[in-house]
Amino acid sequence: MRRTKRYPVKNGNSLWQVYRTVSFWKVFKNTIIILIARFTPFMSVKNWLYRTFLKMEIGEQTAFAFMVVPDIMYPEKITVGKNSIIGYNTTILAHEYLIEEYRLGDVKIGDEVMIGANSTILPGVSIGNRAIVSAGTLVHKDVPAGALVGGNPMQIIYTKEEMEQRNKKSPSN
């Protein structure tokens, strides 16, 4: 179950009223920073931009691939642990604007997590340490530590214990 807080709105859909819920200037600044970071080839520069201007919590040696899009309105609700990889063109959302309400939720990505390309992470989810999210996955619920998940809707392919069993059976390099 995703952990989001709901905020009802009246007089039209919530996205139509977006600047009543978040400052235009915050969104404008975040847009510029995210566009710069999406195309920056230097991981340390991306992390500095995200930490400094978007107030995201990002662990050491975490790598955001080309074209990653963190939440443009509430990036400060995103935490990524150390030594993780966020794959090409992944979107990390901390908000949802719906017809009669909008929802906000923290996104917590653990240490040594691998997120495959073109994945979408919805607000209010946690991804445990050393989890693997396969490419093209819609992460709509929590991912247990050490698990391999994939698909749309996301399903657990292997649990941590099953992954450990598989690794014991495979020949060492």
UniProtKB/TrEMBL annotation:
Signal peptide: none annotated. Gene3D superfamilies: Hexapeptide repeat proteins. One of its GO terms (molecular function) is acyltransferase activity. The keyword Transferase applies. Pfam families: Hexapep_2 (PF14602). Coiled coil: none annotated. The keyword NADP does not apply. Keywords: Acyltransferase, Transferase. This is Acyltransferase. It comes from Oceanobacillus halophilus.
